[in-house]
Specification:
- The chain has 281 residues and is mainly alpha-helical.
- α5 runs antiparallel to α6 and α10 runs antiparallel to α11.
- The longest helix has 19 residues.
């Protein structure tokens, strides 16, 4: 089922290229009962949950096979990427069933991180690894490796491919929204992450995408509340009136803008007087 129904399709790849925002919006929406691959993902997750004793060893063996026999041959046969993508998809979906059987932190260090930082790694595989890290970071991920994850995702957010940038941003969101998040580990990445997110916010066109990115920006302000943000909020402050007009018929985005403004006020504290004239711009 994994290699037949969880594999990314030709139609998916075409939409990725032609309309990356719509592709990501569909990936993040609840469409599993209307589309074959998401439906198969839900079925697989249910099967692994109810028959974990039988299926967990199978998934662990698939990881070993991909690690030893598929990834080394990607350069010779690019089609292997689709197989690896499907297996990684299954491993991410089953993270809560596999956390005792797979040492994800070691796997990240030995294989996933080198793939993410290798410029020649295909964007399909790189995007799937970003997603995979997001699935595992809230389940079992070394505290010591989180700064490495932050730096890697922020670097990817500076790439050209919009799907890659959005997936890396979502991984950051999951990492900092986690119970085990430790603000001191992220402080050194506050400026670079907010800068990358703001550029991503400006580059997106769809209101749904902007809302998702703005939420992550706001979440960073919230999680680091009490820390000095200096001039980091200035760009967003200047952009919010324009974004408000852009969202004239998208009230959920306008709600997200209000939430962002609230966090900006709390983050700027006594310096928030600079926001007083925002509504007149």
């Amino acid at each position: 089922m994994i290699l037949e129904f969880l594999m990314i399709s030709k139609e998916d790849l075409e939409q990725w290229e032609s309309d990356p925002e719509e592709y990501m919006n569909e990936e993040k929406s609840e469409v599993w009962n209307y589309d074959l691959r998401p439906c198969s993902e839900v079925l697989m997750l249910s099967l692994v949950h109810h028959f974990s004793k039988s299926l967990v060893p199978v998934l662990v063996n698939m990881v070993s096979e991909v690690q030893n026999n598929f990834i080394p041959k990607i350069a010779e046969n690019p089609q292997i990427i689709l197989t690896v993508d499907a297996v990684f998809n299954a491993i991410g979906l089953s993270s809560y069933e596999l956390f005792e059987s797979i040492d994800f932190s070691s796997w990240f260090t030995s294989t996933l991180h080198p793939l993410l930082t290798n410029p020649s790694t295909d964007k399909i595989l790189k995007r799937r690894i970003c997603w995979l890290c997001g699935q595992w970071v809230t389940v079992k991920f070394s505290t010591e490796l989180r700064p490495v994850l932050y730096e890697t995702m922020i670097t990817i957010m500076g790439s050209e491919d919009l799907v890659l940038r959005l997936e890396a941003a979502m991984c950051i969101k999951l990492a900092i929204d986690d119970y085990n998040f430790e603000p001191p580990h992220f402080e050194n990445y506050q400026e670079s992450s907010i800068t990358a997110l703001f550029k991503l916010l400006r580059d997106c066109e769809e209101c749904d995408t902007k809302m998702r990115v703005l939420y992550i920006y706001t979440l960073i302000l919230k999680r680091l509340r009490g820390k000095t943000i200096g001039n980091l909020g200035q760009q967003l402050t200047e952009y919010l009136p324009q974004l408000w007009e852009h969202a004239s018929e998208h009230y959920m985005l306008r709600g997200a803008i209000v939430c962002s403004l609230l966090e900006l006020v709390l983050a700027l504290a006594s310096s928030s007087t600079t926001l007083y004239n925002l509504g007149t711009r």
